[in-house]
Write a structure and sequence with these properties.
With 113 residues, the protein is mostly helical. It contains seven helices and two strands; from the N terminus they run E-E-H-H-H-H-H-H-H. The longest helix is centred in the last third of the chain and has 18 residues.
């Protein structure tokens, strides 16, 4: 499978797009939405009536999303949930950023020997 360079230091295999979890797909979709609309987690949280901490956890794949919150996303943001979950090659940079952040968290969480 061909690899795609998404950053000076990051190269991803395109097959990663099919291996993303639901949480990862949603986090990438929300990142895309935030970039397009130039809004923050705080802005999105206010629109949904949830806390900024909750929105932050969702965007970092640390918390599951309630179906009622997904429904509210669709209505408030005027998007189709399928669009938030669809990840394409255009999103490889966002996938790399997500994986990078999650990798740092996992490394810092490991106890020192």
């Amino acid at each position: 499978m061909p690899r795609v360079k998404v950053d000076a230091d990051i190269e991803l295999d395109k097959s990663i797009l099919t291996s993303l979890s639901f949480q990862e797909r949603l986090a990438v979709g929300i990142a895309r939405l935030k970039a397009r609309r130039r809004v923050t987690n705080k802005d999105l949280a206010e629109q949904l009536g949830v806390s900024e901490a909750y929105m932050s956890q969702v965007t970092r794949c640390m918390r599951d999303v309630k179906l009622s919150t997904l429904d509210k996303m669709q209505r408030e943001w005027k998007v189709v949930i399928e669009d938030l979950l669809k990840v394409t090659e255009d999103d490889l940079t966002r996938v790399a950023a997500l994986r990078s952040r999650r990798g740092k968290k996992k490394r810092t969480a490991e106890p020192a020997a």
